[in-house]
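Hello Y.,

Per our agreement to keep a running log of every chain we model this quarter, I'm adding this entry. I've kept the format consistent with earlier entries: sequence first, then predicted structure.
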Amino acid sequence: MTSVVRSGGGGPVPARAETPGMEDSGGAAPRFRATIQLCTYDRAHLLGRVLDACFEQTAPSDSYEVVLVNDGSHDETPRVIEAARRRASCAFTAIDQANAGLARARNAGLARATGERIIFIDDDVLPTPSFVAEHLRSHDRHPAAVVRGAVINTESFERLPTPTWSLANYSGNWFWTSNVSVPLETLRAVGNFTESFGEYGWEDIELGMRLRARGVRGVFNRFAVAFHYKPRPTARNVDGMLRQARSQARTAVQLRALHDHWRILLATGDDPVRRAVHRAARRFGALERLERAVGPHDADRPLSARQLAAARALAHETYYAELERSRASDRA
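Predicted structure for the entry above:
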């Protein structure tokens, strides 16, 4: 079962249980100019601030909605959502479902979205007040285009940098759901997200490849700014970094199977030369040396600059080790 709660400036709408697929808005005329769509999993400590930023936009509150999918969180996320529902100044839909992965969660949100343009963010992304207005400004000029907004990394939501994009913040990702928008009808035309991506990584890049193949144009709006929460890792975060690297390697193999394209080779690093280089590094003990350089993973101690570099290199080598295993498993 999927539970849906709706609220808005006119007051809350009582929750009711729905089976997945009910009240799918496909084919209906858009009710709003835009939908901010985000999914969350166990980030209650960030979610309230993120939702407040979504509500506190300069765009008219009746011009956009927020659609949130709680993908089976185990923390205080339901309490945070309930509090946000009471504060919501625009239409707000909260969908609660068993954990199914980001691709399925995104599609569950899209099934309830009624905005002409979908603006994707993540649950660790803080939009600036003009965020929706800027995406809509680009939409007015380029109504069929993918609009990429500016993402600025920050270690704290309490001490934000200046909201001015520069080349230091450049990302080569063409369709990155930390800050990107696209017409809802275009998403539906290409089939939304591919739900076989059940683990972390590449589901947005894969959708971007299908949008490119359809001839959808991309534009960049450096004034559609959002801050991406990137705290400095501690020793206790290292195991999570390694789990994420393994998941991303497995989904990279899925991505290659769907799109045998040079862009995917560049993005995933799944080419014979780089695989051979990393295979040789592991053969000569790279993983063991990096583990020693990082030290124990079981404390909240800050990582020194050297330890942080070693942790990132360890995650990189772990990615390639898992990539080799996944490729062999896929061939078997």
